[in-house]
């Protein structure tokens, strides 16, 4: 296993440091956490009012691969022509946009763009960086809800069929009447630093060489976020962390996660150990090294092919956390 950057061995907490940064905040709202539409959650239980707006509603079509049509940084919404006088049984209500227009999402083939409209077919991972706030919120919510409906058509308890209710925000067991809600799997993601100008970045075993990010893992039953941070980092790279602090969160509907961001402090003198098999290598990087990698772009950048360090794309909260630490005052 090759390590393109220096490992922790030989480092000391007494080393000369550029700057002390024990605490910092996110500089920007993570891209998929942006809010641009009114969720109008009261209409989920006032179905008559929700349906009353169907005739003039906008429809977000998401195909089986999670793709949508976008043009000029906005998701393309169509009207309800050909969909009947009421929302389809599996449609989900996303809220209202400017002017009070209702927005629903359905799983369907993408429509043919109007003549003269230069549209592209993209999924949320590839389009999140160009979406406006309204589009980011609508597509993120639609992706998460439709993914859940696709996998929740039968009860996990007794196998009975379930049906969509409350405008797509829950499902009911058709035999027992038990109501189930969209499942969300919380996961922590943490930037580990030394309290000064060094940070831990790691590469998963499945990732190409030079591709590094933050440490992350799913929250276990009966576990707090902070406890999960400590456990996951110890399991993945063998470091003991302290001073765990919350930064922010972001939905990650691939298929149904919620990423909860933290930063924590560790001692660079402690040796790495890879205990769960998920991490291929990890190393401490200086702030200058991280800034240089950020300036190049991200994993998908053509310029990144010549970089010694590749970092996550802007759609992920990992990117926002890394940037916020790198440029902390």
UniProtKB/TrEMBL annotation:
It is an enzyme of class 3 (hydrolase). Keywords: Hydrolase, Magnesium, Metal-binding, NAD. Belongs to the Nudix hydrolase family. NudC subfamily. It catalyses: a 5'-end NAD(+)-phospho-ribonucleoside in mRNA + H2O = a 5'-end phospho-adenosine-phospho-ribonucleoside in mRNA + beta-nicotinamide D-ribonucleotide + 2 H(+). One of its GO terms (molecular function) is hydrolase activity. The keyword Hydrolase applies. Its EC number is 3.6.1.22. It comes from the Bacteria. Its cofactor is Mg(2+); Zn(2+). The gene is nudC. Residues 182-307 form the Nudix hydrolase domain. This is NAD(+) diphosphatase. PANTHER family: NAD-CAPPED RNA HYDROLASE NUDT12, NUDIX HYDROLASE, NUDC SUBFAMILY.
């Amino acid at each position: 296993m090759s390590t393109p950057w220096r490992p922790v061995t030989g480092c000391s907490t007494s080393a000369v440091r550029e700057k002390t940064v024990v605490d910092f905040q996110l500089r920007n709202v993570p891209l998929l956490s942006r809010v641009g539409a009114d969720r109008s959650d009261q209409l989920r239980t006032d179905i008559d009012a929700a349906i009353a707006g169907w005739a003039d509603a906008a429809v977000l079509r998401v195909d089986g691969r999670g793709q949508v049509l976008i043009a000029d940084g906005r998701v393309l919404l169509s009207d309800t022509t050909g969909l009947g006088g009421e929302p389809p049984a599996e449609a989900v209500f996303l809220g209202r946009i400017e002017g009070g227009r209702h927005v629903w999402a359905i799983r369907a083939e993408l429509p043919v763009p109007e003549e003269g409209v230069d549209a592209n077919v993209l999924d949320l991972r590839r389009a999140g960086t160009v979406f406006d706030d309204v589009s980011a919120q609508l597509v993120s919510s639609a992706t998460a809800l439709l993914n859940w409906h696709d996998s929740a058509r039968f009860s996990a308890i007794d196998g009975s069929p379930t049906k969509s209710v409350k405008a797509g925000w829950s499902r009911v067991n058709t035999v027992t009447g038990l109501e189930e809600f969209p499942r969300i799997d919380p996961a922590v993601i943490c930037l580990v630093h030394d309290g000064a100008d060094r940070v831990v970045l790691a590469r998963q075993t499945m990732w190409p060489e030079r591709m590094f990010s933050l440490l992350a893992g799913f929250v276990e039953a009966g576990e707090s976020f902070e406890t999960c941070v400590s456990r996951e980092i110890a399991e993945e790279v063998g470091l003991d962390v302290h001073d765990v602090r919350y930064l922010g969160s972001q939905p990650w509907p691939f298929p149904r996660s919620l990423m909860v961001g933290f930063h924590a402090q560790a001692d660079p003198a402690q040796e790495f150990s890879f205990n769960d098999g998920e991490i291929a290598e990890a190393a401490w990087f200086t702030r200058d090294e991280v800034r240089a990698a950020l300036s190049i772009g991200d994993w998908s950048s053509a310029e990144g092919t010549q970089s010694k360090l590749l970092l996550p794309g802007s759609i992920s909260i990992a990117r926002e956390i890394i940037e916020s630490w790198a440029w902390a005052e």
